[in-house]
Amino acid sequence: MEKIGTLLAALLLTTSIYAQQAFKLKVSGEVGTPLELSLQDLTKLPRKNAALTDRDGKVHQYTGVPVYAILQKAGVTLGGELRGANLSKYLLVKCADGYEVLLSLAEIDNSFTDREVILADTIEQQPLEATKGPLRLVVPGEKKPARSCFQVIELVVGYGKD
Q1: Less CB within 10 Å around the terminal CB: N or C of the chain?
Q2: Whole-prediction pTM value?
């Protein structure tokens, strides 16, 4: 029986490692360059820390890639170009369980706000648990963590005039 438990644990670990290696974050919609980024690709982008008070009332420290940097890489309208009609553009964040979160691009753009929205892959310097990761959107400074969603799989940029 002990051998079966050991084999099962090894199988689960192997499956988890494979799933992370196969993972691709999709960036689509109103972008100059649609992307599919692996976890390895994300490690090559700038990293930031963000504090978030979870539902448990505790403040946790997350580390990950600023969403702004990912959108820049995809050629999204940001910075000086984010004015006029472009201010109606938004980011729809899709999660593996079907949960979706909406943010305006101005909420992410560092020329509009000092808040750093990140796509985290670690909490307290440890990888996110499988049920929360491999990526979590962290929107600091909000009274409720409802937009700080788990298991992010896709970022879709849209245009409010559609």
Answers
A1: N
A2: 0.85
